[in-house]
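Justification of resources, computational component.

The compute hours requested in this renewal are based largely on the per-chain cost of generating structure records like the one below. Each record pairs the submitted sequence with a full structure-token output. That output is archived, and it is also reused by downstream analysis tasks.
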Amino acid sequence: MSAATKASRLSSTSLNMSIPTRTVVVMGGSYGGSRAAQILAESLPQGWRVVLVDRNSHMNHVYNFSRYAVLAGHEHKAFIPYINFPSSSLSDIHSCSTHVRVQATINSIDDRRITLSPTLGESQQSSLEFDYAIYALGSHLPSPIDLWNYEKGRMKSSLEPSEVPIYGGTKSEGISSLQERQKRVEAATSVLVVGGGALGIQFATDIAAVYPQKRVTLLHSRHRLLPKFDDQIHEEALQGLQELNVRVILGERLDFASIQHTSKKGSSEPRVVRTLSGQVITADLLLLCTGQVPNTQLLRDMDPRTIATDNGLACVLRTMQLCVTPPLKPHKFQAENDNDDDVLQWLKNFTFDTEEATESTESSPSSPSSSSFAHDDITSTSSSPRAPSLPYFLSPNSSTDTLVESDPCQETLYPNIFVVGDAADAFDAIKAGHTAYYQAEVAARNILRLINRDGKVGMTTKNDLDSELEEYAPGPPAIKVTLGITKSVFEVNGIVGIKNDGVEDLNAAAMWVAHGMRDVSEEDMFA
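The structure output for this chain reads:
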């Protein structure tokens, strides 16, 4: 090798070492986090990288979990590989200069660094410094679909095994967990589903459709199902339940103390529980489809002022930047939150509803993320040229669609940290996958704007509108709820309708395609 060549290579190496790679960390790889990571990976300037951190080895399509916990043969389709982000170990993450994904548990966060540990195995911690961060850790799911067994002391559905095995977030473990739930559903002769949000409706109608001989009861504390939506949604959902011979009890709350006095662990005797009014209900299988908790404990530990005291959600600006609410302007809350609780809502699009709070233990927030998207023939009504035209979208939550009121706080102590999805107190937005998706787009584009702005320091620009940060405004509520295997009810842009074109696997392939698996086959979904 010539001296000139050596000098050139040394010069190049010195240059690369003198300009360290800068990092945007995305915490959580579900619907919102994966979308943010995708936008950033496609648009970050040279010298920047995305580090996607999630405790699961695969993206968990949680909105299909309830169907796959009942109907066997499709459970593997709920775990989608992150094909666009190569995996890295914790020990190698600092030396990676390209976009990368790491399977790890986040232990703490501050304004410029997170600490990580392996999801299973070694207890050794590692720290990762970042320039910008997107917090997309969602919420802890209701127990029937919570593979991670959040809060071991909480009330459990009888879908959960009495002896919970160690769970490490791998696809094989997830498949096994759903298969165990299938066996418990199959073995039961009677089922009580508590919670009349979309998750409860989905479970009750799926079980009744697959096993018409079982006695299925749905208990709901309100007199109306899915109260955030049009009255016709309630009527259609109630009719769908009744068509499948599901017994529906409205306006009654479960007495959780009665659960403590049911049959002993391992007994084959059915559970006998009561409502607060004294009505007795007997069931072999109890599904508590209530009690979703925001996964914001890491932010609370960093700065308690960033968490709204009334709902445990992270305070954000309309730019989706984390903020601290001024002490003299306490966070606005809806009075109904005293009696409501987040229940996982569904669409293949499934959204969240707020229900049955007094029946849940959700006082201490602490995941999978959550949310999903609308049916493939419900099209977006976006007026934004940036909105994608993917098949599973409802309507965008675009800052250009709605005039909004001013925020309680206009500045942030954490301009480099963004919060999206179920963890964010985002101006009464529905807790849903499509909501997280569009919030993530706003956050990712704003990070790109800030990076671009920093790169122009000292330069004169005229009318540089692109440097203005984008603001988020929720779109209209939208939902799709399945009522058995083929029937569903939906509301989009104020229009309520019924469809009868559902399929067993809830069109799982559409989500695989959205995550980069083009022309996916049945065999591909075992990957």
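The first strand starts at residue 22 and ends at 27. DSSP finds ten helices and 24 strands in the chain.
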